[in-house]
Design goal:
Elements lengths: L3 H19 L16 H8 L9 H23 L3 E3 L4 E6 L2 E6 L2 E4 L9 E8 L1 H10 L1 H4 L1 H14 L3 E8 L5 E7 L2 H15 L15 H4 L4 H5 L4
Helix pairs in contact: 1-3, 6-7
C-alpha cells in the first residue's frame, strides 16, 4: 500500500521541480524592473547575471498572477470595458542599449473616464500587502510598479493608467488611476541608462550583507561575493 505521507511529500515537490525545469531565468533588464531603486541591482540585471533563481513555489505564484490577470480582464469585458493590445511591446533605446517590456493591455470604457484609453496593469497581493496599499496608494506602495506604469505610458503615448491589484486572500479588487509624469519619467529613464552603461557596478545601496533588502535580493551572492 502506498504511503500517504510519502505521496504528499513527493508529489508537490515533483510539481515544483517541473516548474523549475522549464523556467528560463531572465538575463536582461526589463522595464518591469527598471524602477528598482538600487543601481547595482539594475547593473547586474542588465549585464546578464542570473542571480538566485526562484524555486517552484515562487514560480507557481508567478503563474497565479497570470491566471488572475486573465480573470480580471474577463471581468472588465463582462462589465463592458474593452481590453486590447495585450502583451504589446514597449521599447526604449539610448546609445546602443535597449530596454523593453510588454504591457498587460490597454483598457477603454472605465466608469471614471469612459472615453480615455488607460494602460492596464494587474498585480496580486497578500492581504497584508493589500492593506498597505490602501494606506499608501500605488506610488508609495511599490516604486518598481509605479515606474513600470510610467515607462509604459511614456512609450505608448498614454496619459493615464489603471493599476489593478487583486487581493489573493479575499478577492478584493483595487483600482487606481495614475497620471503620466512625463518629465520625471524621462529623467528616470536617463538615470537608468546611465547606470547600466557603466563598465563596473555602482556603489552598494545596502550597508551590509545582512541588511533586510540585501537578504532578499536575487543578486546578493554576486553583490557581496558570497561563496556557495
Amino acid at each position: 500500500m502506498a504511503n500517504v505521507a510519502e505521496i504528499l511529500a513527493t508529489t508537490p515537490r515533483l510539481i515544483d521541480s517541473l516548474y523549475e525545469s522549464i523556467n528560463q531565468p531572465r538575463t536582461r533588464l526589463g522595464l518591469s524592473q527598471a524602477g528598482h531603486k538600487c543601481g547595482r541591482y539594475l547593473w547586474y540585471a542588465h549585464h546578464g547575471y542570473e542571480g538566485d533563481t526562484p524555486d517552484g513555489r515562487v514560480l507557481r505564484l508567478f503563474e497565479l498572477g497570470n491566471v488572475v490577470e486573465d480573470i480580471v480582464i474577463d471581468d472588465l469585458q463582462y462589465a463592458g470595458i474593452s481590453c486590447f493590445c495585450q502583451q504589446r511591446e514597449v521599447l526604449f533605446e539610448m546609445n546602443g542599449i535597449t530596454l523593453r517590456g510588454h504591457i498587460d493591455g490597454i483598457v477603454r470604457g472605465l466608469v471614471e473616464a469612459p472615453k480615455t484609453d488607460h494602460l492596464f496593469e494587474c498585480k496580486t497581493a497578500s492581504l497584508k500587502r493589500y492593506k498597505e496599499l490602501l494606506k499608501k496608494g500605488y506610488k508609495d506602495w511599490s516604486q518598481v510598479y509605479y515606474w513600470q506604469l510610467q515607462f509604459y505610458m511614456l512609450g505608448l503615448g498614454l496619459k493615464r493608467s489603471a493599476a489593478f491589484v487583486y487581493c489573493k486572500d479575499d478577492s478584493r479588487l483595487y483600482m487606481e488611476r495614475v497620471k503620466l509624469d512625463k518629465t520625471a519619467t524621462i529623467d528616470k529613464l536617463a538615470d537608468v541608462f546611465s547606470v547600466i552603461a557603466q563598465t563596473c557596478p555602482p556603489v552598494r545601496e545596502c550597508q551590509d550583507v545582512d541588511f533586510f533588502e540585501a537578504k532578499f535580493c536575487q543578486f546578493r551572492r554576486e553583490c557581496w561575493r558570497l561563496k556557495e
